[in-house]
Amino acid sequence: xxxxxxxxxxxxxxxxxxxxxxxxxxxxxxxxxxxxxxxxxxxxxxxxxxxxxxxxxxxxxxxxxxxxxxxxxxxxxxxxxxxxxxxxxxxxxxxxxxxxxxxxxxxxxxxxxxxxxxxxxxxxxxxxxxxxxxxxxxxxxxxxxxxxxxxxxxxxxxxxxxxxxxxxx
Length: 169
What we know:
By secondary structure, this protein is α+β, with helices and mostly antiparallel strands. It is built from six helices and nine strands, in the order βββαβββαβααααββ. Helix content is 35%, strand content 31%. It is elongated.
C-alpha cells in the first residue's frame, strides 16, 4: 500500500478549501482510478487518526482534496497555508449503499417490475442517497408516503421526489 506524502498550498474554489493532487500522485495512490477516490488523510500530522475523505476527480487525471472545516481545525490550517499532506488509499472502503434497503421498501419495490428495473439502473451514489433518506423515516405514515412517491418516480410517473424531477425528459 502506497502512502503519499507531499507539500501543497491550500487553495479555495468558491467556498471550498482544497489541495490539488496531481494525476501522477493519484496514480501512485491507486492506479487507473477515475471516480471519487477514498483515502485516509492527515494534514501536518493531524488528526492523530487519519480523516476519511474522497479525492474528487477534476477530469484530467488530477484530483481535488477538499478540506473539511473539522480537518482544517484539527490541523490548525487555513487557506493559503503550505501544508504537508499524508494520504493513503482507504482499503476499508466499500462502494454502494452503506445501509441495507429497508425491508418495508424492498418488498414493494420487488413487486413493481418497472420500478425495480429503474432502481437497478440508478448509480450507486443515488441508491445510497435514497437508502440513507429512507432509513431515517420512523412513522408508518411517512414510510407509506415515501413508498408511494419512490415507486411512482421509479416507474416513470412525472414527479418530484428527493428534490429531483423524475420521469421527465
